[in-house]
Write a structure and sequence with these properties.
Blueprint (H helix, E strand, L loop, with lengths): L6 E3 L4 H5 L2 E6 L2 E7 L13 H20 L3 E11 L8 E4 L2 E5 L3 E10 L2 E13 L4
Antiparallel strand pairs: 1-2, 2-3, 3-5, 4-8, 6-7, 7-8
Length: 133
Amino acid sequence: MLDGNWEILTDEGFIGLIGPFYRLDTPEGPQFRFPTDQRHHNLRGVLQGGALMTFADRVLGTTARFLTQAPRTATVQMNMQFIDAVQIGEVVETMPVMVRATKQLVFMSCTLMVGERTVGVANGIWKKLAAPQ
């Protein structure tokens, strides 16, 4: 599942409660993985949609910072389409794409996959922020 040089995305906040998420830098850009487990299920026994949205939000923001070299970013708006259920134990993967960057905003997109199956699509806008003072 974590072959290669996958790096854990550490976070002592909310992501630390639902993660871990993993990152692999490739020549095409950063790729991310979210291995799901029992903590992530909803009342139907599949992945809770909010967990998938949190994963998308984190990887899109992380990639926006990486590609633009912005010290920080903040989510302005994010749209999520749920396409197929993720079964507990499956691994969700994505490789975010920067659609456009302006002086202040970064437009991002990602397709969330389990193997060859598309399970979701997320698009959003992130604001570039200055480094903390």
